[in-house]
Fold this sequence. Notes:
The chain is of the alpha+beta class. It contains twelve helices and 13 strands. This is DUF559 domain-containing protein.
Amino acid sequence: MTHDAPLSPRPLRHLSEAHRRVLTAAQIRAHGVGAAELTERCRPDGPWRQLLPNVVLLHSGPPTGEERLHGALLYAARAQAPAVPAQPTARSPHRPLYAEAMITGLAALALYGFSATPSLPSLDQVDVLVPRLRRLRSTGYVRILRSPALPTPRAVTGLPVAPVPRALADAVAGLTDPRAVRRLLTEAVRGGHCEPAAVVRELTRARLLTRPHVVDAVDSLLAEGRSIAEDRLYRMVGEYGLPAPVWNVDLRLPGGPHLGGLDAYWPDQAVAVELDTRAHRQGRGQEQEEDPEWSEYARKREHLERLGITVVYITPRKLRDAMEQQAAVVRTALMASGDRDPAAYVVVLPR
């Protein structure tokens, strides 16, 4: 027997992609290599090495970062789902299917291109998210994290990866350095990976907002997110030719009560825009209760509209993903002002 003999029926010596250089023992047996030969090839001076239980690296050198990720997914994926589909074609080369497993935590953020994370090869640990009821243990460099309901993964370089907010929460759960937490959360928003509200929802779900250093980082995150949303709102008005509003104002009735602050206001048309930057921080037991922040939004909107002022609420996500559509909504409100009764007189003050 020679160690460089090709496997049958389909040789593997030509394989170059990382997912083809890491296989399960079952996949290798399907290529015609018996248990004894596999053991022989994985001996200390052999051409292969065992990367994880039942996962084999088809060379003797250290694994690359990508090989480690594929190995972690092969270890954690549900066994009855084939990890490598049937015969690939020239037009459609096969990619592994990893059932009920996805990369999360720092490794996921590194795949998304975060600069605040260590590089993939330097990570001591790769977090893999699986369903809560899976009977699977952490081993080697793989840490198993469980979830009652898996999020829908994103495909990044052919790998199933947890969405950024979930990956952030899993990464933050293992960090105690306040600066590291703040850098990750800030980069998530500043880099356009996700909106602050989505991050806060995941941190709340993971019960991480009881940690002071996480709360401090979230406060910075929300301030960062509002600043970015305000910049987008300014850009929307300029790029889509809307008339210039007065920015960041408070409205009051003459000699009367304060009506509320607004991000943009067109006095001649009595149209206002307010950014909806709410981020829920309540505990799990409060999730079904009425959101007090939204109640305040609704109360203010109802009061202003009774005075004849149209209020348009825009979320940061809509500004990011559908700016043209939001500009059309505001333009429609401005054009419709001529068909409404005149609004009550209000005092406009700088906020």
